[in-house]
Amino acid sequence: MRKRVMILIAACLYYTGCVAIARWWRRRGKPCVVVLNYHRAASGYLREHMLYLQRYYHVMHLDEALDGCARSSRQKDRRTVLVITFDDGYYDNYTHGLTLARDLEMPITIFLVPGYIESSDRFWWFEGRYLVEHTEVEKVVLGEKVYHLQQSEERKDLELAIDQRLRYAATVAERQTFLVQVREMLGVPGPVMHRVEAERPLTWDEVAEMQESGWVSFGAHTMHHPILSYLTDHEEVRREVQECRAVLEQRLRHSVRTFAYPVGQQQHIGEHVLQAVQQAGYTWAFTTVSGINTPQSDHYLMRRVEADVTQHPFVLAAEAAGLWSFFARLRWLPVVRAYLTRHA
Hints:
The chain has 344 residues and is α/β, with parallel strands linked by helices. The chain has helices spanning 2-15, 18-28, 46-56, 62-70, 91-104, 114-119, 127-134, 152-167, 172-186, 204-213, 234-252, 271-279, 313-321, 323-330, 334-343, and strands at residues 33-38, 58-59, 81-88, 108-112, 139-142, 145-148, 216-220, 258-260, 284-286, 305-306. It has 2 domains: 31-119 and 201-311, Glycoside hydrolase/deacetylase (TIM Barrel, Alpha-Beta Barrel); 124-186, no CATH class. It starts with a helix and ends with a helix.
C-alpha cells in the first residue's frame, strides 16, 4: 500500500507540472550536476528511467560532467547535467546496464571493488541471508545467544546478527575470519561453490568490454568494501583507498580520479577517511548524502540522489528534479503523513 501511495503522489507531481517546474527552476539557476546512485540494473524500470532522463537531462560521463561543473561553464545543451552511477559492480551492470547504455547511447559510471572482482566471492552483505537460507543445522550459538533455526523469527534474527558482525568489523581480516567461522558453524561451503549468478561481481574481462564500448567509465569503491569509519587502523583505511586506485589504474590503463565511499553517509566518513582519499590522489569523492553538486561543492563530499530500478518512473522523475527530497524535508503534508502511517 505504501508503495502505491508513493507512486500516486509522484504521478500527481508529474501530471500537475510540478516536476517540469522543478526542472525549469534548477535549469535557470547556477550550473549544477545531478548524480544518481543506483546499485542493480536488472528486474526493474531502468530502460524507462533512462529514456526519461535522456529526454529531459544532459546525461554525461562522470569526469566530463564534473570538469564542466568545476569550470562553471554553460554547455550549449541547456538541460541540467546528470550522471548515472552504479555502486559495487554487479554482474547485471554488464548484462543490463551495458546493453542499455549501448542501445540508448547513454553513458554510465560504475564504482568498482577490485578485491571482489579478483576473488569472485559474494559481497559480504549477501552472506547473512545466504548462509541462513542454505544451512541444515537446527541450532547454532552465536555470541551468547542460541538460535533455533526451525523458527522463522530466529532465522531472521541470526541473519541480522551475522550482517551486523560483518558490517561493524574493525578490520577486513576480522570480517573474513568471522565468515569462515560462521560458514563452518552452519555447514555451508564457501562462496565460489555456491555463487548466485545474479549477485556476483563483475569480472575483469567484463570490465574491459564495458570500457571498450565507450559508454561505461569506472571509479573506485575501496579494495574490499569495508565501512571505512569502522576500521580501527588508519593505515588499513589508507591501503583500502590507495590500493583500489592503483589496481584500477593498472587494469584500466588510465588515471582513476573518482571515488565513492562505501555506504557513504556522514557517519561512515571520518576526518581520517577524508584525508586518506585526498592523499590517494582522487579529484572527487562521492557520498550517498542526498543533494546536487555545484561549483562550490566540497570535492570530497559530493552528493548523490538515491535511485533504484524498482522505483516507478514517476518516482524517479520526482527524485531527479529534487521534489522528493524537498517533501521529505517538510516531512510531507500532515494528511499525507497520516495516510501513509495508517497504510504502512
